[in-house]
Design brief:
Shape: globular
Oligomer: single chain
Number of helices: 4
Helix content: 10-25%
CATH topology: Pnp Oxidase, Chain A
Largest sheet: 8 strands, antiparallel
Distance between the termini: 45 Å
Number of strands: 8
Order of helices and strands: EHEEEEHEEHEH
Length: 181
């Protein structure tokens, strides 16, 4: 059933690029901290090479992934097939938070559709790729991307989004540092 892969093959790259949603999992080092699993979408994922991927980290109510990656770099990204043959892929590796002050920010920025709600990019250096069956994952049909975040960001405006990030994304729920300037 489950296998491991050395790198992202051309076939796996094609499959990943067809997925409409992915999940990001992270955790703090403390034993009583909260494990986080967060769904992502909106064409916010790119494969940089066979061992490295990146996604747009858009504004949200929490800042767990950023806080965890800044603390310990541990990150898992999971894709699962909701249509077609069953399949689950997990990308395990070391994450890095890329903010506007990072030298790689602009080159990553050019790979994506601009989002006013962009907080950072999360880049993953992959050290393990796990492939499993997904036999129990239900079939779903993709209808369309939601536009709720874009509308919320447009209503808030640049200053309002920045104020939200500054007040709501300073710390994780476990008190770890989140977005800092």
């Amino acid at each position: 059933m489950g296998t491991t892969k050395e790198s992202i093959s051309p076939e796996l790259k094609t499959w990943i690029e067809k997925q409409k949603v992915f999940f990001v999992a992270s955790a703090p080092l403390t034993a009583d901290g909260h494990v986080n699993c967060s769904p992502k979408g909106l064409d916010s994922f790119r494969i940089l090479n066979e061992h490295q991927v990146v996604y747009q980290d858009l504004v949200g109510s929490g800042v767990e992934t950023i806080a965890h990656v800044q603390e310990n770099q541990r990150l898992t990204i999971m894709f699962c097939a909701f249509d077609g043959p069953p399949k689950i892929i997990r990308l395990y590796g070391k994450g890095e938070v890329i903010t506007k002050s990072h030298p790689d920010f602009e080159s990553l920025h050019s790979l994506f559709k601009p989002h006013t709600g962009l907080r950072s990019y999360i880049r993953l250096q992959i050290h393990r790729i796990g492939d499993s069956c997904g036999y129990s994952v239900p079939l779903y049909e993709f209808k369309e991307d939601r536009d709720v975040l874009d509308k919320w960001v447009a209503h808030k405006g640049l200053d309002g989004v920045q104020e939200y990030i500054d007040t709501k994304n300073k710390h994780s729920i476990d008190g770890l540092p989140g977005i800092t300037h």
